[in-house]
Design brief:
mainly alpha
Length: about 100
């Protein structure tokens, strides 16, 4: 069970880092992000996460806000997986005290 939690936590961290990278490239490209190859590549990699979040969020959430909502949900998933990992880890006792 611990192995599954560790793998899921790693996948969530990877997706979260991709969303952060997408936001940074968006800021640095000064409005020309759609012609930036790096941005389009990162957008391709984050599209499954954004599509899943788009399905579970109400229509009230604008499409331009979906990546931010995705990052927020991934952060909460990361915190939950971190808590699960800490709970599942065996307690290491120190010899001598």
């Amino acid at each position: 069970m611990l192995s599954l939690v560790v793998v899921l936590k790693g996948l969530v961290e990877f997706a979260l880092l991709l969303l952060v990278a997408q936001g940074l490239v968006f800021v640095v490209s000064f409005g020309r992000h759609e012609v930036n190859r790096v941005y389009r590549g990162i957008r391709f990699l984050t599209s499954p996460v954004n599509a899943a979040v788009r399905r579970i969020t109400p229509r009230l959430v604008l499409d331009k806000h979906v990546p931010a909502v995705s990052a927020l949900l991934l952060f909460f998933c990361w915190v939950a997986l971190l808590a699960a990992k800490v709970q599942l880890m065996p307690v290491v006792t120190r010899a001598g005290g």
